[in-house]
Amino acid sequence: MTDRSNAGLTTLHHWNSNGLYSYQLLHPWHRDTHLDFLEVDGTPWLILSSASRPPIVYKWNRVLRQLEIHGYLPDAIDVWMGQQFVEVQGLPSRGSKAALPFSVAGRLYLAMGSDYSFSRVYLWESAAQRFQPFQELNVRGPRAFSLLSVDSKDLLPVSV
Q: 5-28: b or e for each residue (b if 16 or more CB lie within 10 Å)?
């Protein structure tokens, strides 16, 4: 997947024996910042985040052999229920261009970046079935988080 800002298109690429080639143009450019592929009940899905609109959800159409727009996600934590995502919790996300769910020592966290305030880490509270604020990070405008475990240390690299 590439975001060709000069051409204004986000493009899905296909691998063949010689390399990667353009396969499908998804939509006009909206400053796309992140994507996640997932498979639910054998169907591939793509969630594409953007700096200028709510995340868009694509579903793979097996007949047409391409991704089709299925809908948009609000600024919320959503879960899959049957045939759609449903909101379970809203989180402040204005200016967010990066988010990463991760687990350390059996506990689930969510790092959420922001361009307008400090980034935040949330902790999943099983009893409440919600993410609760855990820690502010003195980082503004991150574009990516990643979890790296090295020498028995869990590190959270942040790309700004």
A: eeeebbebeeeeeeeeeeebebee
